[in-house]
Design a protein that fits this description.
The complex is a heterodimer of chains A (413) and B (200). Chain A has 13 helices and 8 strands. Chain A is mostly helical and 413 residues long. Chain A folds into 3 domains: 66 residues, Arc Repressor Mutant, subunit A (Orthogonal Bundle), CATH 1.10.10; 154 residues, no CATH class; 88 residues. Chain B folds into 2 domains: 62 residues, Arc Repressor Mutant, subunit A (Orthogonal Bundle); 115 residues, Arc Repressor Mutant, subunit A. In chain B, α5 crosses α6 and α6 packs across α8. Classes of the chains: A mainly alpha (413), B alpha+beta (200). Chains A and B meet through α8 and α9 of A and β3, α4, α5 and α9 of B.
């Protein structure tokens, strides 16, 4: 009998396309055939039915995918400053009441003014946190790539959230320029101070909005091109003879630089084996190759430490990955050199002796350094600092590619 | 022979110098002074350096306005266009149909195989490709296609063991050819997939 877990995994496998779609789109409208694949998952409480043919992933299944896809890193921001404005109004009311009563007037007033200032600071911090969080997401998103649809939805969400935040901020500023805030000179000073400090944050938010708009614009361009190419596929299906009559394109090709591409010129020479001198040289060459292949040392296979050592004894030995061994050497090299070293350049210069690919070396190194490692009871961060450099991914606007890892020695003096 | 001479020979041999398949050559040629020097020297041969529209690759074009040569080149492309459209459609459907296949994009053999195995339409298209001739096993057919694309310089190995490949600048040029045909022949645009989804 099949284990229930295996059965669930198989059910998920049969509906994998629908699950992926539902994960990206939040909800899918399934055809009868797709619904047949999904229904076992509904029975297993992994998907929910919404209406006749609409299905969604349950929160738990969604979370299961979020973890490896790092979706939890999608930033969610608080876009409503209304509660803070109401708190400010309450604080102003207390401030004015105390002013009227006159009981311990001076000290109470100082205390109430402090409350007003605190709330203004909290609005400032909220704006700053939100802007920083979105900026970080835009600048440091690398690793797994999101599909174009998912990326578009994420970018659109950030844009909407930032729009709402700016609207809310503008309303707050308008409200702060009305009574009762304008009645009190001390509060007016705080508000001026607050406005001055938030200018830089608002600028940061606007920069984020522009970046996201640029991403969305690029993505629309890519989507349109993809649609134009798909149109040619469909057109060819409708008119199978279409490619044999493209006279307009042929005529227009004269105006296009891409069709003036040079034809490949073969530059490799074929030896004339009828020539006795060439034949002699070829015999020498073949003999030389044969000799080399006979005397070439056998390639050693790096096995690392085996799990099974000794006669029948089983010993579990945790082997250090090649990438980390190489990183440790690189860290020593950086420290000895006393200046920043690029992992990419180091790999390029030493690839003949390194047993790792560049991607493996870089990603493993980042994972290792981010795990706050310790060597001989001393945190590695006391010796080595690092910086991750990223470049825009060519396809999905907003995704980043890991470009390099720069290691820097920490000056201990 | 120095690096510049080797690079010049590659360009003259019709190679597309792409930032993914020939990174050091691409970087060298991206230096404005080097680019100018190459173009200055190539002028005597009647050729100049051109770039793909997304700036991913360099290649050589004739300076002279020899319209016959352009038409001949176009006809040469058209002889393989049916095959090109078929494999490109398979790749687009198997990866992200809303996005272009661009240079720098990575594909994994196992992912493409899973998509094709799950889709009868893609299987039929794969079966009709010249690279699948005489082969009925889908995996073998796909291996044949990958081999063909590597031979044509469209794909390069990225991770041999894991069978991960990367598209080169050749695919950007292919996209440009198809976009040009769509525009020149006024091929009607199909509805966007979002709209199609809504209609379903």
């Amino acid at each position: 009998m099949t284990h229930p877990v295996i059965e669930i995994i198989e059910q998920m496998y049969h509906a994998r396309e629908q699950i992926a779609h539902a994960y990206d789109e939040r909800e899918i409208q399934a055809s009868p055939d797709e619904a047949d694949r999904i229904l076992p998952l509904v029975k297993s409480y992994l998907m929910n039915r919404k209406g006749d043919n609409n299905f969604r992933l349950t929160r738990r299944l969604n979370a299961l995918f979020d973890l490896p896809l790092r979706k939890q890193r999608i930033s969610s921001i608080d876009t409503n400053l209304g509660d803070d404005v109401r708190a400010l109004e309450d604080a102003m009311r207390y401030l004015n009441d105390d002013s009227l009563i006159g009981h311990d007037r001076y000290e109470t007033r100082i205390e109430r003014l402090g409350d007003v200032e605190d709330i203004l600071y909290s609005i400032h911090d909220l704006l700053d946190d939100n802007a920083t969080r979105i900026q970080a997401r835009l600048d440091n998103n690398f690793g797994l790539l999101a599909t174009s649809k998912a990326k578009k939805a994420e970018n659109q969400r950030y844009l909407n959230d930032l729009d709402k935040l700016i609207d809310s901020y503008n309303q707050t500023i308008r409200r702060l320029r009305e009574e009762p805030f304008t009645d009190d000179l001390d509060v007016l000073d705080y508000i001026e101070n607050f406005s001055g400090k938030t200018i830089a944050i608002v600028e940061k938010i606007k920069r984020c909005q522009n970046t996201i708009r640029e991403f969305l614009y690029k993505q629309r361009e890519i989507e349109l091109k993809a649609r134009r190419i798909r149109s040619v596929f469909s057109h060819l299906r409708r008119k199978p003879g279409f490619l044999s009559d493209v006279s307009q394109a042929e005529e227009a090709s004269e105006q296009q630089n891409i069709f003036y591409q040079i034809k490949p010129i073969t530059i490799s020479a074929a030896p004339n084996i009828d020539d006795p001198v060439t034949r002699e040289e070829m015999v020498d060459l073949i003999q030389d190759i044969q000799l080399r292949s006979k005397t070439a040392p056998e390639e050693k296979t790096s096995k690392g430490k085996s799990l099974i050592e000794g006669e029948g004894l089983v010993e579990e030995v945790e082997d250090t990955p090649e990438a980390i061994k190489a990183l440790v050497v690189l860290m020593g090299y950086t420290h000895e050199l006393g200046r920043s070293v690029s992992l990419k350049e180091y790999w390029s210069d030493h690839q003949s002796i390194l047993a790792v690919t560049l991607d493996e070396f870089a990603f493993e190194s980042i994972n290792y350094l981010q795990s706050e490692p310790v060597i001989d009871d001393v945190p590695v961060s006391e010796y080595i600092d690092y910086e991750i450099t990223l470049i825009d991914h060519p396809i999905y606007s907003g995704n980043k590619w890991l470009n390099d890892l720069i290691l820097m020695p920490v000056n201990r003096e | 022979m120095n690096d510049s001479s080797v690079l010049a020979q590659k360009l003259l041999a019709g190679k597309v110098v792409c930032k993914y398949s020939m990174p050091s050559e691409y970087e060298h040629l991206s230096t404005p002074s080097v680019y100018e020097a190459f173009n200055h020297n190539f002028m005597f041969l009647g050729v100049k350096i051109a770039e793909t529209s997304n700036k991913s690759s360099f290649y050589l074009t004739y300076i002279s306005n020899n319209k016959g040569a352009a038409r001949d080149f176009f006809k040469g492309i058209m002889t393989h266009m049916r095959t090109t459209l078929s494999w490109l459609e398979i790749m687009m459907e198997a990866t992200d149909r809303d996005s272009l296949i661009n240079s720098g994009q990575d594909i994994s053999f196992s992912n493409i195989l899973a998509s094709v195995t799950d889709n009868m339409d893609l299987q039929e298209r794969l079966n009709r490709l010249p690279s699948s001739k005489g082969e009925i096993n889908v995996k073998k057919q796909l291996e044949g296609l990958i081999k063909y694309l590597k031979k044509e310089g469209v794909l390069m190995d990225l991770h041999t063991e894991l069978e991960i490949y990367r598209f080169t600048g050749m695919v950007d040029l292919i996209n440009e050819y198809i976009l040009f045909i769509q525009e020149a022949e006024s091929v009607p645009l199909e509805e966007s997939s979002e709209k199609q989804d809504r209609l379903l």
